[in-house]
Amino acid sequence: MPHRQKAAIKEPRKQAKAPKSEKTSKNLISLKLSDQERRIMERITRATSKDASEIIREAFSFWVAKRQRLCLDI
Question: What is the pLDDT along the chain (74 residues), one digit of tens a residue?
């Protein structure tokens, strides 16, 4: 009985991932939101055309500035 080889379909090799852009932050923080807070965040992202990360960074900046004006622990 002759030996038959199966026709192998080779997939192209995956290309190496391109290095991440410098804009990508190396710091990652997880945030839990209630359902109501998530809905509010979604409304804000649609209204401002900003992503959630930008909105949270902006809110944090406002919070820090307020603490500094009040001369509190920052």
Answer: 566 666 566 666 667 666 666 666 678 889 999 999 999 999 999 999 999 999 999 999 999 998 888 886 66
What is the reported pTM? 0.58
Q: For the chain, how many structural domains are there in total?
A: 1
Domain assignment of residue 57, yes or no:
yes
Within a domain: 11: no
Question: Containing domain of residue 44, as a range?
Answer: 35-69
Q: How many CB atoms lie within 10 A of CB 60?
A: 11
Does some domain include residue 30? no
Give dist(CA 53, CA 24) in Å, integer.
Answer: 12
Are residues 66 and 73 in contact, defined by beta-carbon separation less than 8 angstroms?
Answer: no
Question: From CA 39, how far away is CA 52, in angstroms rounded?
Answer: 12
